[in-house]
Amino acid sequence: MNRRQVLAYTRRALADNRIDDASLEAEILLRHALEINRVQLYSDLECDIIPSDEEALKELLERRIQGEPSAYITGHREFYGLDFRVDRNVLIPRPETEMLVEKAISLASSHPISSIADIGTGCGAIAISLALNLPTVTIYATDVSASALGIARANCKKHGVTDRIVLLEGDMLEPLPEPVDIIIANLPYVRESDMPPGGRLSFEPALALNGGEDGLDGIRSLCHQAGNKLRGNGFILLEMGQGQAEAVTALFQEIFPSSRIEVENDLAGIERIASLRLTLSRV
After folding, report:
1. pLDDT tens-digit profile of 69-109?
2. Is 147 or 281 the better-scoring residue by pLDDT?
3. Nearest residue to 172 via CA among 241, 224, 239, 128
4. Based on the domain organization, do 228 and 96 belong to the same domain?
5. Is position 71 within any domain?
6. Could you give the number of structural domains in the chain?
7. Residues 96 and 196 in one domain
8. Cα separation values, 140 from 6, 71, 85, 124, 240, Å
9. CATH code (residue 181)
10. Phi and psi at residue 48, in whole multiples of 5°?
11. What is the DSSP string of 192-215?
């Protein structure tokens, strides 16, 4: 079989098993099996595939059909136009999380921002994206998982920002050595009752998904820690789950009654980002 035939077969197999974006997923798996890029794949679709590569693809296809995300199969995920190494120790970065990066960059263009803390950094996607776009800003990145920080460290080295990001192991904001201008976080926000017994999410670390009974345990903890870790007129930027905006804004108002709060929707119209700005009265 040649590449064109194998690609068509893989697409059909994925579609028959109700895998979303079957065409793209098939391409990703085939490129990974052949260890080639997209240009190389499509420049010679008539090239025959050797039996060993065909067997390798079949193994990858079976893993994907069983629900394992392609990012874990290939060990890579794109985020904010960058390629990141991922494995099952870290959450796979989502496109909607790019809103956090865009919001922080926008704030840095209109406010005097000198330091940002990415809480629960995982693979480091948010911190590294910020470091590359805000070269004069000090970036702290914390995570309670030493394994996750190992992946983040590898990604920092890959993108040449090892000297720009301070990786810190510990719970939430506790490891921060000083107050910062922006606290940014994509914390676990899946309700415990909604944690999946199977499917894609079951492959990802529960530590990065399970937000407790109401999905807000991590967000609640961060807000209670933020009082002496955020500078006057500083910002908190949080990603949240569908239907959580009212609870998150109420939490903000309870802990920071004089703050200014905004909620932004993602492209699907879901309330996704909650932002808070302290006032000088809290300095």
Report:
1. 999 999 999 999 999 999 999 999 999 999 999 999 999 99
2. 147
3. 224
4. yes
5. no
6. 2
7. yes
8. 45, 25, 19, 10, 21
9. 3.40.50.150
10. -70, 150
11. GGG--SSSGGGGS-GGGTB--SSS
